[in-house]
């Protein structure tokens, strides 16, 4: 029998009979407010902030909230199964933890805590290239659990090649290539505090531990950390990359490759033509382009264009179980969750991340059941008001 994620609510209620209440809110949108009080202005601004005045991030939320679920009644939903197959992998639910870098700015246990939480709940953890912890150390705490590697595609081809070799050796199975950050967007919350962790050597662990990166330094990292930081800054992004360059990644990585940041159906078609396996419809949580189209508004067109050729994933704006439901109805196979789990990490370490995962999937399970569905497979455009609109 499949796991019923919704049972988490009864676990909470039963705890209440002994006087126990959850350490963190079960309404996940409240986590940001709590983190604002717990974290310093620099870290919370870095996590919560967006490009420009934050309008793109607000548009992401508004687009999801605009869609309304239409429940169906008198359907047997006693037994439910949230499991899905994504990129050839059997997942217990249509969810993975999105790649978020520099997690040490919110909690000392950083990426390993988030990775352990994902492993404990059976959802994939996607490690950022810009993590505070080398990829091998994160892999070690996960055992055999599903883990994917997110690549920021460096100018230095040898560093990229080395990253991919290291990730493969460490058991990362899917490559997620972020294409929307060849340079940083205009982020006033960070600019007003002159706060960029990378320039302090935070979020550079994969680079500073990499032999190909080290080969480009005159002195070891510990002897001249400023030079190492500048070497990193000079190679991190590459605005010169074009579609033919994907052939190099396809040659270097024999597993699935997913392109993150796709918003236009023609770009999704080009991804399919280039031999990619999937796309993530995403605007980087509103962090890159001010005035950008909301990710949920772009999702149906991308899914319609390539849904039969590629695995379509989604992020940007997901905060609740009903958001996940709506993304699935709009054409996503699964969603990536970002900021909420980071706030959970900031507030309560690994336990906080597990709390966020369990809350989100309990709410998704209940939303499915109360809308007349036993699993993700029967959700479609007609599950929302206005159909495919």
Instruction: Kindly name the structural category.
Output: alpha/beta
Please list the strands of the largest sheet in the order they lie side by side. Answer: 3-10-9-8-7-6-5-4
Order of helices and strands: HHHHEEEHEHEHEHHHHHEHEHEHEH
**Share of helical residues:** 40-55%
Principal-axis shape equals: globular
Mean pLDDT: 97
Computed over alpha carbons, the radius of gyration is 20 Å
Major sheet, described briefly? 8 strands, parallel
Number of strands: 10
Provide the β-strand percentage band.
Answer: 5-15%
Q: Poorly predicted ranges (pLDDT <50, ≥5 residues)?
A: none
- What distance separates the N and C termini? 35 Å
Number of helices: 16
Condensed summary:
It is built from 16 helices and 10 strands.
List keywords for this structure.
alpha/beta; 389 residues; 8-stranded parallel beta sheet
Can you give a write-up of this model?
42% of the residues lie in helices and 11% in strands. The chain has 389 residues and is α/β, with parallel strands linked by helices. The strands form two sheets. It has an eight-stranded parallel beta sheet with strand order 3-10-9-8-7-6-5-4. Strands 1-2 form a two-stranded antiparallel sheet. 50% of the residues are buried.
Layout: helices, strands, pairs:
Elements lengths: L6 H10 L14 H8 L2 H8 L6 H12 L17 E3 L2 E3 L3 E3 L12 H12 L3 E3 L7 H8 L4 E6 L4 H13 L4 E5 L9 H4 L13 H4 L2 H4 L10 H11 L10 H7 L4 E6 L2 H9 L4 E4 L13 H12 L4 E4 L6 H9 L4 E4 L1 H32 L19
Parallel strand pairs: 3-10, 4-5, 5-6, 6-7, 7-8, 8-9, 9-10
Antiparallel strand pairs: 1-2
Helix pairs in contact: 2-16, 5-6, 5-16, 13-14, 15-16
